[in-house]
Amino acid sequence: MNTMLAGRLRLDTRTFAVEEVPIPVPGPGEVLVEVRAAGVCLSDVHLIDGSLSPFFLTDAVTEAGAVTLGHEVAGVVHTLGPDVKGGWTPGQRVVLQAGEACGDCGGCLRRMTCHRPLTRGLDYDGGWAQYTIAREGTLLPIPDELPFDQAAIIPDAVSTPYAAIVGTGAVRPAQAVGIWGAGGLGAHAVRLARMVGAAPIIA
Fold it and tell me: What predicted TM-score, i.e. pTM, was given to this entire model?
């Protein structure tokens, strides 16, 4: 089988369709992942309705005129590209980071914060497909007891409110917290605020 199904968004017409496309081949330092679960984020909906546009399209997406959506992805390692050094093995359970550094901007070249971060499923092909490509540095192993559908949302719906509460907000035990909007991220924010001991939590 050399083809797969993928949920693709045509960038000029904002037309979404499930299409048959070639299975990508991993290049140096890349891994082909067989997708087992992929989340649907509100940003995916906004991409389709045209209220959100890609920020830093890769050349491959620009040339194709379409992008495979999906930045919340979990699956198993299928094939290793050349020069993969991370000790990954076929069949290993993984979750994919929602994006990666561009590798070319001044920040990246100085090994500092990337100025043009790329988002999976927005700037380059994501995980609404049977297979997807990931740089090995964007893979994280997941334990056998963690279901794929729960693992898939960690890179966005869980990590975003976690960074806000633990990092930016530096919430401490017995500190009052207000959470505006108890949607996908907000619901996780309530749970995370409770875990760090915030009180009261107003949502």
Answer: 0.89
How many whole angstroms separate alpha carbon 34 and alpha carbon 1? 13
C-alpha angle with apex 149: 143 to 155, nearest 5 degrees?
Answer: 75
Would you kindly state where each structural domain of the chain is located, as residue ranges? 3-152, 160-202
* Residues facing residue 124 across a β-bridge: 120
Cβ–Cβ under 8 Å, residues 185 and 157: yes
Could you give phi then psi for residue 169, rounded to 5 degrees? Answer: -80, -20
CATH of domain 3-152: 3.90.180.10
pLDDT of 182? 83
Mean pLDDT for 5-18 is: 94
Contact 58, 124 (CB under 8 A): yes
Across the chain, where does the E strand assignment appear?
3-10, 15-22, 30-38, 66-68, 73-80, 93-96, 99-100, 118-119, 131-135, 139-141, 177-178, 201-202
Share of the chain above pLDDT 90, in %: 75
> What is the rounded distance in angstroms from the CA atom of residue 61 to the CA atom of residue 54?
10
Question: Is residue 94 pLDDT above 70, yes or no?
Answer: yes
